[in-house]
TrEMBL record:
<dbReference type="Pfam" id="PF02635">
    <property type="entry name" value="DsrE"/>
</dbReference>
<keyword id="KW-0732">Signal</keyword>
<protein>
    <submittedName>
        <fullName>DsrE family protein</fullName>
    </submittedName>
</protein>
<dbReference type="InterPro" id="IPR003787">
    <property type="entry name" value="Sulphur_relay_DsrE/F-like"/>
</dbReference>
<dbReference type="InterPro" id="IPR027396">
    <property type="entry name" value="DsrEFH-like"/>
</dbReference>
<feature type="signal peptide">
    <location>
        <begin position="1"/>
        <end position="20"/>
    </location>
</feature>
Length: 143
């Protein structure tokens, strides 16, 4: 009887123990528009996802990939969301990736070096980076 009660208690607690261990979620956010509303929505998505999983006792890893017109999000002097990015980079498990192909195209077109926000890292290709992240099991989000 005691064994059966102990086993029943253990089985009942198993889901709670699994929740306590937490799970790590991986999210790729795609940004290819230079629209302040879209840029803010992408940042809101990242904040909401992080808050949700943190409250659930889980972890989250977020990578925001910007290319094409969306690269302006990460360009010094052009980003309408620079302050939010600075704050979020300190508060969230987030990486901001800038497309090297887009940077090269912008530099060729303008003849000037593209200076990124310090929070940004360059990846060779934004599209390829999104493919790689999805192949690694990241969930894909496009605001």
């Amino acid at each position: 009887m005691i064994r059966r009660t102990a086993l029943t208690a253990l089985l009942a607690a198993a889901p709670l123990m699994a929740m306590a261990e937490g799970k790590t979620h991986h999210v790729a956010i795609h940004v290819d528009q230079n629209d302040p509303q879209v840029l803010n929505m992408a940042l809101n998505n990242a904040q909401n996802v992080a808050a949700y999983y943190t409250e659930a006792g889980d972890e989250v890893v977020i990578e925001m990939v910007a290319y094409g017109p969306g690269l302006h999000m990460l360009v010094e002097g052009k980003s309408p969301v620079k302050d939010r990015i600075s704050t979020m980079a300190l508060e969230l498990p987030i990486t901001f990736s800038a497309c090297g192909n887009t940077i090269a195209g912008m530099e060729k077109k303008t003849g000037e070096k593209v200076v990124l926000l310090e929070e940004a890292q360059v990846v060779p290709s934004g599209v390829v980076r999104l493919i790689e992240l999805q192949e690694e099991g990241y969930a894909y989000v496009r605001p």
